[in-house]
Design a protein that fits this description.
The complex is a heterodimer of chains A (379) and B (395). Helices cover 49% and strands 17% of the residues of chain A. Chain A has 379 residues and is α+β, with helices and mostly antiparallel strands. Chain A folds into three domains: 112 residues, Acyl-CoA dehydrogenase/oxidase, N-terminal domain (Butyryl-Coa Dehydrogenase, subunit A, domain 1, Orthogonal Bundle); 98 residues, Beta Barrel (Butyryl-CoA Dehydrogenase, subunit A, domain 2); 151 residues, Butyryl-CoA Dehydrogenase, subunit A, domain 3. In chain A, strands 1-4-5-8 form a four-stranded mixed sheet. In chain A, helix 6 packs parallel to helix 8. Chain B is an alpha+beta fold. Chain B folds into two domains: 231 residues, Butyryl-CoA Dehydrogenase, subunit A, domain 3; 106 residues, Beta Barrel (Butyryl-CoA Dehydrogenase, subunit A, domain 2). In chain B, 42% of the residues lie in helices and 13% in strands. Chain B has twelve helices and eight strands. In chain B, the strands form two sheets. Chain B has a four-stranded mixed sheet with strand order 1-4-5-8. In chain B, strands 2-3-7-6 form a four-stranded antiparallel sheet, with no helix packed on it. The longest helix of chain B has 26 residues. The chains are: A alpha+beta (379), B alpha+beta (395). At the A-B interface, helix 6, helix 7, helix 8 and helix 11 of A face helix 1, helix 6, helix 7, helix 8 and helix 11 of B.
Chain lengths: 379, 395
């Protein structure tokens, strides 16, 4: 047992903080007020700045040309970066340079077409895993059938974050009894976005349709299952879990600053017990969330991938809920100001709400983990 | 980073779990509904068996004949013990001497600490007064010098658990210096319970098994040789006791009890996994917080704020889980054939004793308002930040 942070923690935090200070916070004002993201030229500059600071290819192993950071280190980076509204997952600013793990082992022509451009920042790849989302979506689903040339996809999938479709979407679905990866490039014949659904925050959702969509073997990753599942678990812990934690921590700091200054009946709000309890509840929940996320991350980093994958879903769920409750309390501390778009709190409130339904709803994740959690508590 | 229990602690915890299932759970129905004692010979038999299986004194420091496994191990054993309603039997683990006894001088260790560790003597902890609970700085009990070598103690203590069984009491009293703040004049005395001038006024019947006492001190003459540490300087000792107690006393029991209730609920299909999972997740989080704080305490780091976070979280979560599982079982859950009602009544005390839930919330909020980030709870981060500033002088 040892709760010491990894030796690299301080350096990573400094790099992430610098990125936030120099590239993200100054641009928060350029965010369209209701939804959406930054203008393309600003996005490009922000991405280049991140690359220059060395925060590139975080989850890509050194052999494939990345930083090869562990889960714990990636969690620490996400915690800091998502302190900015622009670092939140819905803005999609961190996907560049960090393609899903199923792409890391690509060789030859496949590497040239997908992995290398992703590492160079010319292309962006996202992953969706269909079986996990099936229970939440209730859609008819996607069928993948083998053909002599590769596979044919047909069917639909609803409510996929639209940003995942900006370039190449790695669809991981079952074919012939195992999980396989299908590389769906934007513009691929037979594959299209059939409907767009605006969301309450920065996330826009898209319905996807595959109509007799034929993929040659070069666009199929037959052994994608294990890497895709592990990547999803890592994303849950680092991007959604630790990211939500970092965002909530920034909001809590904004709240603390406010209640120390704001006076009611001649005394600062900080003296009011009703307000103090919001602070205490938030601190306890965020502290607990952090410990749960760090447990999952350190399990993975120490090689216990099965346990890490089991814990990733509930850890993300707890962190996202703790973060949403915290941001809501901070909004409440500010009264009407917190509700306005003059402060970043309402945007955090709307954007973080997505984290509780992203990648399988929290309720599903927690229900699926009930047996594991109870057994582990009984040991 | 490694958040898992050390292998030896895990092994002892598993042994304790097996012992609980084999020896204690079958005896649960013999526990009187409003007491936490079994017949003396039964308890002695359980302790003898625990000793023979090496489960006794594991957290006692090596120099006193224990295994020196520390607070993490004590929490693990107590978590396992929480799987039975017999957890509240006194003196089961041989770790009961208040940690403050380790601050005794050699003579006091010979008279109090060692016999306690051997199970021959037993102490109780008397801090709370009718008008001073969590706000220990508001103590009223006075200790006036009587000649060169004695003090006369006058005042009342209340909610002193196990005072009726104790051979001695750890008593906090005021020895204020002229003009000093109240908390600068608090002294800790070791008082033999048969000292003239000390008597138990009454025992308070409670809804659970605990029957704490109200003690009256009337010119109770105590030798100066029974002062622990530096006279007038016991406030820090009280804080130290609070920090360790808030981690190791109630939270592991609450977590073990909640875990057992949830396992029974799931085995009986008493509720959907969506509901069981949500509660189990919260217990799981409380357990992470518990072992993190215990580990930090074992490293000699300041854990006052973590202790409050652990206590507030684990005790409320445990109580809520027990209440919910009782509800799921309906009238059967309310009855004495199942352990839930007993757990419910006993755990209800946890959000009150050793610092109320409200006090823990107050301590956590104040820490943040004074600028302690939850991030600083991590070793490494703390070192980088130049170490933690001394916290507020308050329990």
């Amino acid at each position: 047992m040892d709760f010491t942070l990894p030796a690299s923690a301080e350096q990573l935090r400094q790099a992430a903080d610098r990125f936030v200070q120099e590239a993200l916070l100054p641009h928060e004002g350029l965010l369209p007020p209701a939804e959406g993201t930054l203008p393309e030229d600003v996005r490009h500059r922000v991405t280049e700045r991140r690359r220059a600071l060395g925060l590139w290819g975080l989850g890509v192993p050194p052999a494939a040309g990345g930083m090869g950071l562990g889960w714990m280190e990636r969690a620490l980076v996400q915690e800091r970066v998502q302190r900015s509204l622009l670092g939140l997952w819905p803005q999609g600013l961190l996907a560049a340079g960090d393609p899903p793990a199923a792409l890391h082992a690509m060789r030859g022509a496949q590497r040239e077409e997908y992995l290398q451009p992703c590492l160079d920042g010319r292309r962006i790849a996202h992953q969706i895993l269909l079986p996990g989302g099936a229970r939440a979506g209730g859609a008819p689903g996607l069928r993948a059938m083998p053909t002599p040339e590769g596979a044919v996809l047909s069917g639909t999938w609803t409510a996929v974050p639209a940003l995942c479709t900006e370039d190449v979407l790695l669809v991981v679905a079952e074919m012939q009894g195992r999980l396989q990866g299908f590389l769906c490039d934007r513009g691929l014949p037979g594959y299209r976005v059939c409907r767009r659904r605006p969301g309450m925050g920065s996330v826009e959702l898209a319905d996807l349709a595959w109509e007799d969509c034929r993929l040659e073997t070069a666009r199929i990753l037959p052994d994608a299952g294990p890497a895709a599942l592990l990547w999803r678990a890592a994303q849950r812990v680092t991007v959604f879990g630790a990211g939500a934690l970092g965002a909530a921590e920034r909001c809590l700091e904004i709240g603390l600053d406010h209640i120390r200054r704001r006076q009611t009946f001649g005394r600062p709000l900080a003296d009011r017990q009703a307000i103090q309890w919001m602070v205490a509840d938030s601190a306890r929940e965020l502290h607990g969330a952090r410990l749960l996320l760090y447990r999952a991350a350190s399990l993975a980093d120490r090689g216990d991938r099965d346990s890490a994958q089991d814990l990733a879903g509930p850890a993300m769920a707890y962190a996202a809920e703790a973060a949403c409750r915290t941001v809501d309390r901070v909004l409440q501390m500010h009264g009407g100001y917190g509700y306005t778009r003059e402060l970043p709190i309402e945007r955090f409130w709307r954007d973080l709400r997505f984290y509780r339904v992203a990648d399988g709803s929290n309720d599903t994740l927690v229900a699926d983990a009930a047996g594991m959690l109870v057994a582990d508590l009984s040991a | 980073m490694d958040c898992t229990l050390p292998p030896d602690v895990r092994k002892w915890k598993e042994s304790m779990r097996r012992f609980v299932e084999r020896e204690l759970v079958p005896r649960e129905h013999t526990l009187p509904p409003f007491a936490n004692t079994l017949p003396e010979e039964v308890t002695a038999g359980i302790v003898a068996q625990l000793k023979s299986e090496g489960l006794w004194g594991l957290a006692v420091p090596r120099e006193y004949g224990g295994a020196g496994l520390g607070l993490v191990a004590l929490c693990a054993l107590r978590e396992a013990l929480g799987h039975t309603t017999l957890w509240s039997l006194a003196r089961l683990l041989g770790t009961e001497p208040p940690i403050l006894l380790y601050d005794c001088n050699e003579d006091q260790k010979r008279r109090f600490l060692l016999p306690t560790l051997q199970g021959k003597r037993y102490g109780c902890f008397a801090l709370t007064e009718p008008n001073a609970g969590s706000d220990a700085a508001a103590l009223k009990m006075r200790a006036e010098p009587d000649g060169k070598d004695h003090f006369l103690l006058s005042g009342r203590k209340i909610f002193t658990s196990h005072a009726d069984e104790a051979d001695y009491a750890l008593v906090f009293a005021l020895t204020p210096p002229a003009g000093g703040a109240a908390r600068e004049g608090i002294t800790l005395f070791l008082v033999e319970t048969d000292t003239p001038g000390l008597r138990i006024l009454r025992q308070l019947d409670t809804m659970g098994g605990d029957r704490p006492s109200e003690l009256l001190f009337e010119d109770c003459r105590v030798p100066a040789a029974n002062i622990v540490g530096v006279p007038g300087d016991a406030f820090g000792l009280a804080q130290k006791w609070f920090a360790c107690d808030r981690i190791a006393l109630q939270p592991p029991i609450a977590i073990g009890a909640a875990a057992r209730c949830l396992a029974m609920a799931r085995a009986a299909n008493a509720a959907p996994d969506a509901q069981i999972g949500q509660l189990a997740l919260r217990v799981y989080v409380a357990r992470e917080m518990l072992y993190h704080a215990a580990w930090k305490a074992d490293q000699g780091l300041d854990v006052r704020h973590e202790a409050s976070m652990v206590k507030a979280t684990a005790t409320t979560t445990g109580l809520e889980v027990v209440d919910q599982v009782l509800q799921w079982f309906g009238p059967a859950g309310y009855g004495r054939d199942l352990p839930f009602e007993r757990y419910y009544r006993d755990l209800r005390r946890f959000t009150i004793a050793a610092g109320t839930y409200e006090i823990q919330q107050f301590i956590v909020a104040r820490a943040l308002l004074r600028g302690f980030s939850p991030l600083n709870c991590f070793a490494g981060a703390e070192a980088a930040a130049g170490g933690r500033q001394p916290g507020p002088a308050h329990t």
